[in-house]
Amino acid sequence: KISKMFTTSSWKLTVALTMLVVFSAMASSSFAPKTSDEILSHLQGDNFNLYLLYFYESTNTQTRNSIVEVEGKLKKFLAEHQELMYAKVDLSNPEFRSLGGVVGLPSTPAILMIVHGKGVWLSGTNSFLLMERLNDFLPTFKNAAAHHSNPY
Fold first, then answer.
1. Which pairs count as long-range contacts for 33-36, CB under 8 Å and 24+ apart, including other chains?
2. 65-93 pLDDT, tens per residue?
3. Burial environment of residue 32 by CB neighbours within 10 A (0 to 12, 13 to 18, 19 or more)
4. pLDDT digits (tens, 9 = 90+) for 96-117
5. Please, are residues 119 and 44 in contact by the beta-carbon 8 Å criterion?
6. Which domain of life is it from (predicted)?
7. How far is CA 136 from CA 9, 13, 87, 140, 142, in A?
């Protein structure tokens, strides 16, 4: 009876660990920059990583619902596209406040898709349209990252 219980427990543990490894491998590559300089270092680096940066202001009460909605849809999008390097940038944080001006941020919430210094801004509060546009641009940017070229 003990050996049967051990076998069942071992099997469950093995399945749980396997699922953890699979889901970890499927997650997008997020990076958690602490300063504007860290973000700029990634974006200006000599690489062809495909970056997706989500800019928002946590203190903006007028866009709070939109922020939550966009984040929810972004999670699904990122689960489908593991090759993206993703970061959330809260412009309410003093470490990131000046970054908006440096990178040409139009308004928040906004998403920047960028590869090798070339990118596209998507901004607004309609999460459906933001995701639709991300899906429109993604193939071109994936191709640019894969072939070490510019997206346009």
1. 33/87, 33/89, 34/95, 35/95, 35/96, 36/95, 36/96, 36/98, 36/99, 36/102
2. 999 999 999 999 999 999 999 999 999 99
3. exposed
4. 988 888 888 888 999 999 998 8
5. no
6. Eukaryota
7. 46, 41, 20, 8, 11
DSSP 15-49: HHHHHHHHHHHHS-EE---SSHHHHHHHHHSS---
| Residues counted in the chain | 152
* Contact yes or no for 89/56 (Cβ under 8 A): yes
Pairing of strands 29-30, 84-90: parallel
| Structural domains for the chain | 28-146 (3.40.30.10)
